Amino acid sequence: MLEQLQRGERARGGAGPAVESIEGGRRVPDLVAALFPRREVVVPWMVSRLISATLIVATAPARRAAVGTGAFSRWDGVWYLLIARSGYGHPPLGAVQTRWPFFPVLPGVIGVLRTLDFPARGGVITLDHLAFLLALAGVWRIARRHTSDDASRLAVWALALFPTAFVFSMVYPSAIFLATSVWAFALVEEHHDVPAGMLAATAALTRPNGFVVAIALTIGVAAAASRPWWRAVRVAGPACVALGVWCALCWHWTGNPVVFFTAKRGWHEVGLVDLVCHPIRDPNAYLHLALGVAAGVVVLLRRRRLPASWTLFSGLYLIPSLGLGIVGLGRYTNECFPPFVAAGELLERARTTTRRRLFLFAVGLQAAGAWWVLHQAHIP
User: Fold this and answer.
1) Which of 32, 162, 255, 310 measures 20 to 30 Å from 369, CA to CA?
2) Contact 337, 178 (CB under 8 A)
């Protein structure tokens, strides 16, 4: 307990002097430096985004690379840009792919950028990069509360160089979801329940399964707080309201409050049972399954060292994909911060040469993943 308290004070201590400097009339850069330490956050962000951008451009087919940011908006990015431009369209009919499975935060952000006369594609790619920087800062901050500085630093690098991390540079909601979820957990631990609840609400409207952030936070608060129900209302209330409003709007527009779930029938997803029954149906699913299983193993190995709510969040966010659709699980794994904090603890025990080899291997896997997704046209 004493060790955890010391880690918590250390994690908060970086921002404390900066806040005091602002209250004392000194410079805002002190706060920025405290939230985004150069070595621990900014350098991993810059290196990883340079690698990812290079891989995206290098592995994209020539016809897409020739149109500027076109390579950065493949797959789901096309749907998000379409929704931002012309809305969700008519209600879905039959097993046909439509816009309805996609949640409104990213299209809303793109719409705001268009209103402000920013280029939709380039603007949201820039915003995704900034959201990823904020997400890495959140991982560094919350990891320091539960692990050593060295393990926290390794956690940031592991997340930034994961094989699917190039998606954080594409027109996907991954960076926004990661940033909102990790900071929601961080703020709840610091007893800032209202902003944490707002971030959980944003996460709930970013992805169809984003509501699990509020579920995990609420259960964690209810199990640990001295006044659990009042804190639970502040943490979970905004997400419940946000998702309820979205379901009501879907009901009004389509006659189905959960159209985002039923419309997924048009995607012909591959679940674990399908993979067992038809093992050569979709080789891409095996890659996603391997990444998800690896994350689950790492979390289970370190579950006694990490908060129970983190393990719950990881399970709620990753396990349903085994039944609803394995393809995409690798990307979801990269959006889930607890496996990387656990990985940081494991990497801390490894030799320096072993760490370097593992990170070089990770970059190689990311290059292979980018080639597989962008050049070979498989879903990330």
Assistant:
1) 310
2) yes
